[in-house]
Amino acid sequence: MTSIFTKIIKGEIPCYKIAETEDFLAFLDINPNAKGHTLCIPKKEVDKLFDLDEETYNGLMSFSRQVALGLEKAVSCNRIGVSVIGLEVPHAHVHLIPLQSMEDVRFIKKEKMPPEEFQELAEAIRSHLEI
Ligand code: 5GP
Fold first, then answer.
1. Model-level pTM?
2. Are 41 and 68 in contact (CB under 8 A)?
3. Which tens digits make up the pLDDT trace of 29-40?
4. Does residue 88 have its Cβ closer than 6 Å to ligand 1?
5. b or e along 82-118 (b: 16 or more beta carbons within 10 Å of the residue's beta carbon)?
6. Distant-in-sequence, close-in-space partners of 5: CB < 8 Å, separation ≥ 6
7. Torsions phi, psi for 87 (to 5 deg)
8. CA-based max dimension of the chain
9. How far is residue 122's CA from residue 28's CA, in Å, rounded to a whole number?
């Protein structure tokens, strides 16, 4: 079955896009732990991160690093945290989470934002990227 992230890649579901290459896509998480919480995904649909072929895995990590460097400039935080979970969406993805404290990696405390704020945040992050 097509994953919700493949539907985002195909443009069938909207997203607040951060960056896109031929093989990867980054967009804001719709239910963020913190402002700027971003998901980086391979366009190739594979459920588990470590089942990706080595080239795609390394490419995703390199892409995530580039997104994280821009994210850190755009959003005030102590550092960018990285999580890989995948219990909700069976399409490999890297969570990049701007951290103030350990609370931000617990996937319990959620940030509510209006659509305009998601839009502004996405634009701010994009302006700091070199992808
Ligand atoms: P995980 O699979 O790593 O447990 O969590 C999946 C993540 O994807 C969650 O943080 C959730 O908020 C996010 N997510 C689920 N559906 C959508 C969606 O349709 N759009 C966006 N932007 N994020 C989503």
1. 0.98
2. no
3. 999 999 999 999
4. yes
5. beeeeeeeebbbbbbbbbeeeebbeeeeeeeeeeeeb
6. 39, 41, 45, 89, 91, 93
7. -75, -20
8. 39
9. 7
Task: Report the candidate in 12, 64, 14 with the shortest Cα–Cα distance to residue 41.
Answer: 64
User: How far is 42 from 49, CA to CA, in rounded Å?
Assistant: 10
- How many angstroms does the Cα of residue 95 sit away from the middle of ligand 1? 9
Residue having the nearest C-alpha atom to atom 3 of ligand 1? 86
Integer Cα distance of 32 and 90 in angstroms: 18
- Cα(25)–Cα(60) distance, rounded to whole angstroms? 9
Ligand 1 centroid to residue 90 C-alpha, Å = 10
* Average pLDDT value for the chain: 97
Enumerate domains of the chain plus CATH numbers: 4-126 (3.30.428.10)
Cα dihedral sign, 8-93-84-1:
positive
